[in-house]
Structures are given as C-alpha cells and as structure tokens.
Design a protein that fits this description.
This protein is of the alpha/beta class and about 475 residues long. It contains 14 helices and 18 strands. The structure holds NADP nicotinamide-adenine-dinucleotide phosphate (NAP).
C-alpha cells in the first residue's frame, strides 16, 4: 500500500530538487502518494504571516511525514522563517545532518574518509527567537535550554549512533562559559552516557570542536550540539565534503518527521536546471529509511555513488562549462539504480529507536526552593557610581539591599577598578538583608516601586535557590 507523504516543493530551486527526488524515489519502486502542499514565500505573499497555511498543516497532521524543498525567508519585514516555524510547530526536536565524502567531489579533504553525523537540537536555544530591546541601543535574545530538551537530543544522538552502527558520540558545548544553558547538555551527557555502554562518548568544548573539524574531521562519528552551534558547525562540515549541494537533513520528532536539504532556495539558480539535487535526494533517502524502506534507500544511495563516480556531476562541482543539468543528473541516477560502486560503500542501517523521554511539563522538580532576591534591570545614562548611590538610598528601610550593579555582565558598582565601556542597560542585584529570609512578592513589588522613583526599570529576574543551589550566575568581578 502506498504511504502518503506531504510534499512541499518550496521556493527558488526547491521544485527542481523535489522533482528530481520524487522521480528517483518512484523509480526505486517505493509507492508514495505525494500530497503537494505549499509554504514559504508564495504563502507569505498571500498574507499568511506564518508562511505555513492551514491546508499544509492539515496535511502534515494526517501524513506525519514531509519531504520539503527549501523555503525562502523574506528579510526585513518581520515574518519568521517558515522553515523554523515548521520545525517548531511539530516539535521536530532533532536535526540530523550527515556529512560524508562523495566520489568525484574533490576537496582538500578528499581521501580522508570523512563520515560523520551532526545531531543538532532543533527547537530550543537562541532559535526560540525571544528577543527584546532592553533599551533603544541594547538588544537581548533569550537562550532557553531545558533538561527535557537536552535529554531528548542527547538520547537521540546515542540512538542514532546505534541505528547506523556508529561507535562514538561527541557532545560539543560552550559549557565553560554558559554553565547553566550549554552546561545542561554536558550534564545530561554525563548522566545518561552510562545507559549506552556500547557507544563511546566524550565532551568537547565547541570552539575546539570547530578547530578539530577543520584539522582532523575524520576523528568524529556523531557530534551532538545545541541549536546555534549545530547550525554553524553543520554548514562548516558540509563544506568539507563539497558544499551545500551534498548536505541532506532530517528533522525528527515524536509525532512528525520533516526531511529537507540543509541549503536554502538559492534564488539566483531557480529554473536554470543547473543546481545539485543530491542534498534533497539524500534527505529523501533518509525518509525512506525512516519509513522502513531500507532496500530502496540503499539502492538509491548506491546509484548516487555510481553516478558521481562516473563523473556525472552538477555545476556546483564541475563549473559552468562541464556541469551536468539537474534533469540529466536525475536520469543518470535512475539508470544506475541496481548498480553498486566497488569502492564507495553504503552503511548498513537498522531502524532507529526514538528516545522515550517522559513528557511531563515539570520535567525537573526541586525538593526545596527559596526566593532570595531580585535582579532589577534599568535603563540609565548616569554613571554607575551615581546609580549605585541612588539605588542604595531608594531601598533604605526595605528588607532588600543592593549587592552590586553590572553592565553587560561585568560588575561596575561598587567600583572594582575595572575599566569598562558601559551602555545604558544596567542590572541591579538585590538580596534580602537577612540572609535566612525569603523575599515575598510584595517585597519585590515594593523594591521595584522604590527604584522606579528615580530610574526606568525595564524588567526583573527573580533570584532563587533550587535544592539549596543558586539559580543564577555571578557577574564578572562579583564576589
Ligand atoms: P542558499 O540558498 O543555501 O544558497 C547559498 C549558496 O549555496 C548558493 O548561492 C550556491 O552557491 C550554493 N547552493 C545552495 N544549494 C545549492 C544546490 N542545491 N546546488 C548548487 N549550489 C547550491 O543560501 P542563501 O542564499 O543564504 O539563502 C537563500 C534563501 O533560502 C533565504 O531566503 C534563506 O532564508 C533561505 N534558506 C532556507 C533554508 C531551508 O529551507 N531550510 C535553509 C537556508 C536558507 P554559489 O553561489 O557558490 O554557487
């Protein structure tokens, strides 16, 4: 019986890529009912602010499986990326990006056997897109990383390693600087690695990971990262093996899976029949494996290897004069179905076991909690010394006292002797005078009202202790 798949041709070069992919999948013998739906630029133009219309959402709700061409994101008039919207609407929390060497695609790394997979967290981190202007000149983006999200993605990395017979998972984070948010992924690795004794694991600082990827990429097998780090390093990795034309991806969630290339809609090449459809095609191959069509998936992947090995390659690699048209490339892959390269092998795959992580909203519950103070963020063009003296005076007689003021995370009051170039955004940190005391909401509102008499407050952040541990980090220079 044919399985129904939602097909979103996409913008720019998208339709050429999905057309080639559809033809090759059909030629492999797999029966699919393609339900063609739209998203992206054409939909934005119709006035749908999300870029994803109801018909498309209805189709995805039914099929739970999407093959998608790239969607253009209009720049400068406020719409969110329809790509990100689709990933987030269906909680496709894992973005899997394989990176391997291909025949005929010569790069400075050719012959080194690069064959790695980046498992990128796909819905949290800075990509939540929660942004504010703290003052007219100071911007803020919230980086939200949950233990639940970290557990899902780290487990996915291990499960994915098992499904592809891989031996090592490297978790790359910036936990040395962002101890809470990036550290969450590191701590999760430390907690759950023991449940996967058959897979070796390591933690690596993400900047060193970038360095190692350029220096010795063949050392990596599976690399798991938070959203932004994974975004950047997966593009870097795809360049090691020939560029975006060879970079497929899968967005996996508990309910829905979306398969798409890493690349965008490359509008300047739209309709020219010159682009490389391999990235979308290999995304389609990953979709076939997800559907359990392992034989057809390997058949197509082998045919791609034979095609590239024969020198039938598109413009992005061979240049304008020698590049093969997109349609010719697709026809050649079809004619090579059933053939295998003697040199370029395709892995043996097993079905992936999706991580079983509990869905509780309150995923981590503290046994004890206490609110011990508040950070009040203010906008002020005054010198820190003046702000400090004024806030101290304003909170006199309150149960809270000013501990320090910082500018972009560096303590500026009481003065430390540091030489800082301040902005007009400051954070005033206030704790209960009685260290054993707990701050009530009334006391919190009172202290804001006091500060508001002389300063523009912009927002607050409560300071807690969860299970006796502070829920906040110190500023640079804070004791
Ligand atoms: P892009 O579309 O990925 O294209 C960047 C460059 O990569 C192209 O100019 C071309 O390089 C090369 N390229 C990409 N795909 C190729 C292919 N299949 N075959 C051959 N060469 C390929 O990135 P962009 O120009 O920054 O973004 C264009 C639009 O796509 C934007 O609206 C962006 O928001 C959107 N986008 C969508 C997705 C998605 O749908 N998931 C992802 C990224 C970007 P040369 O110029 O060197 O030939």
């Amino acid at each position: 019986m044919a399985r129904t798949v939602t097909l979103i041709p996409g913008d720019g070069i998208g339709p050429e890529c999905t057309d080639a992919t559809k033809k090759i999948i059909e030629a492999s013998g797999v029966k699919i009912d393609w339900e063609v739906r739209h998203a992206g630029e054409s939909v934005f133009k119709q006035g749908v602010a999300s870029g994803v219309p109801k018909e498309t959402m209805d189709s995805i709700k039914k099929t739970r499986l999407v093959l998608k061409g790239p969607l253009g994101t209009p720049i400068g008039y406020g719409e969110k990326s329809a790509n990100v919207t689709l990933r987030k609407l269906y909680e496709t929390y894992a973005n899997i990006r394989p990176v391997r060497e291909f025949p005929g695609v010569t790069t400075p790394y050719s012959g080194r056997g690069i064959d790695l997979v980046i498992v990128r967290e796909n819905v949290e981190d800075l990509y939540a897109g929660i942004e504010y202007m703290q003052t007219p000149g100071v911007a803020e983006t919230l980086k939200l990383i949950s233990r639940k999200g970290s557990e899902k993605i780290v487990r996915m990395a291990f499960e994915f390693a098992r499904s592809e017979g891989r031996k090592k998972v490297s978790v790359a984070t910036k936990s040395n600087i962002m101890k809470f948010s990036e550290g969450m992924m590191k701590r999760t690795l430390e907690d759950i690695a023991k449940e996967y004794p058959d897979i070796q694991s390591e933690h690596i600082i993400v900047d060193n990971c970038a360095h190692q990827l350029v220096k010795k990429p063949e050392q990596f097998d599976v690399i798991c990262m938070t959203n932004m780090n994974g975004d950047i390093l997966s593009d870097l990795s795809s360049a090691l093996v020939g560029g975006l034309g060879f970079a497929p991806s899968a967005n996996l969630g508990n309910e829905v899976a979306i398969f798409e290339a890493v690349h965008g809609s490359a509008p300047k090449y739209a309709g020219k029949n010159t682009i490389n459809p391999t990235a979308v095609l290999l995304s389609g191959v990953a979709m076939l494996r997800y559907m359990g069509e392992f034989e057809a998936a390997s058949k197509i992947e082998n045919a791609v290897m034979v095609t590239l090995e024969s020198g039938c390659i598109t413009r992005d690699i061979l240049g304008d004069a020698k590049g093969i048209p997109t349609t010719k490339y697709a026809e050649t892959v079809i004619s090579n179905l059933g053939k295998k390269s003697a040199k370029w092998k395709v892995r043996d795959y097993k079905p992936i076991k999706m991580p079983n992580v509990k869905l509780d909203q309150a995923f981590v519950v503290a046994k004890t909690r206490k609110t011990i103070g508040v950070d009040v963020f203010i906008e002020s063009a005054a010198a820190p010394e003046l702000i400090g003296k004024s806030v101290e005076k304003l909170v006199e007689g309150s149960p809270l006292q000013l501990k320090m003021i910082d500018s972009r995370g560096t303590k500026v009051y009481p003065p430390t002797g540091a030489i800082t170039d301040n902005t007009d955004a400051f954070r005033c940190r206030l704790f209960m005078r009685d260290a054993a005391g707990e701050m009530s909401d009334a006391q919190c509102f009172d202290v804001i009202a006091r500060i508001a008499k002389e300063h523009k407050w912009t927002h607050i952040e409560k300071l807690h202790e969860f299970d006796g541990k502070p829920s906040f980090t110190k500023a640079q220079g804070e004791d």
